[in-house]
Every structure is written in C-alpha cells, then in structure tokens.
Design a protein that fits this description.
The chain has 72 residues and is an all-alpha fold. The protein has one domain (6-71). It is built from 4 helices and no strands. It is flat, with a radius of gyration of 11 Å.
Length: 72
C-alpha cells in the first residue's frame, strides 16, 4: 500500500485551485513509484510532450509524489 497527498501536491504547484486541485500527474507519479513498472524519466518525458498547460509544474508534482511514495 502507498499513500500520497496528491491534493496538497497539486495545490503546491498551482495545478487547479485549492478548492478543486488537479491531481492526475501527482497520482501518476505515485502509481509509477508504487508499481515500479515505468522509469520516472519516461514519465517526465511524456508529461513534457503531452501536457499542454504548466508542463514543468506537472513534472514537479509527479516527481514529488514519486519520491514521496518511494519513501513510504
């Protein structure tokens, strides 16, 4: 089992609003760490190529969730 506060991470990187954070990339980072199926460099590359708004912030959110999940 893994636990990550994706909402807080999304708010920290201003993804969505405090009332309605957009957590998808944070969850992606956490799932990739928990399952160990995908290297984070590939996750980062995909986000940079496919996410049209705030790609750097989305990578940062995914990285924080990824690293946080590895520590749990």
């Amino acid at each position: 089992m893994a636990c990550v506060d994706a909402s807080a991470i999304a708010v920290k990187y201003r993804l969505g609003s405090a009332a309605s954070p957009i957590v998808n990339t944070a969850i992606l980072g956490a799932i990739s760490a928990a399952l160990g199926l995908v290297d984070f460099d590939n996750i980062s590359k995909a986000i940079m190529e496919e996410v049209p708004l705030k790609p750097e912030e989305n990578v940062a959110a995914a990285r924080e969730a990824y690293e946080s999940t590895l520590l749990n």
